[in-house]
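tool=predict chain=A
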Amino acid sequence: MRGWRGLVVGLVCALVFAVVGVGVVGYFVYTEARVDDVQSVDAIIVLGGEHDGREQYAMSLARQGVSENIVLSNAYWTGDKQMAAFCATTDPRFTVTCLPPEPGTTRGEALFTRDLAAQRGWTSVLVISWRYHLPRARYIFSQCFDGRILVRDVPRRYDFSLAEWEYTYLYQTVGFVKAALQGEC
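tool=predict ok
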């Protein structure tokens, strides 16, 4: 009986240590991730995910003269009315290009960025995503794109529960491992 208690206590302690470790490391890697200053670039690349203001933020930056090109990752279902409206945006200060990533991941978005850059002579991009995806997005884009890569987060607040933070940090970490295993594009 005593052996089982020790095993259970040991497993519980290991689980608590793992949860706390993911939270502490995740905070410093993802919450405190480096965000680049806004600078002029050849294109603003908006990663898919959710309509959390990222498309509007990119258009606001383009209106301020950051870039004449916006590329929206159209990773959404075909009936997404918001995405259709963003893709139909016309403004004399910039052009909007909408592309579905293949594969439908950050790597797919980095691949279409690489291809567009080669076709259009781009040497710099500003990648926009949500805050906790930035380190992984920077890493994946650096595997696929040889130019200057800047990353910015969508200006918003995240009111997550402790469990949601843990999941977010763990998800991003697993994504990093996957990207490292995939290697260069």
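The helical segments are 2-31, 54-63, 81-87, 106-120, 134-144, 162-182. The beta strands are 43-46, 69-73, 95-99, 124-129, 148-153.
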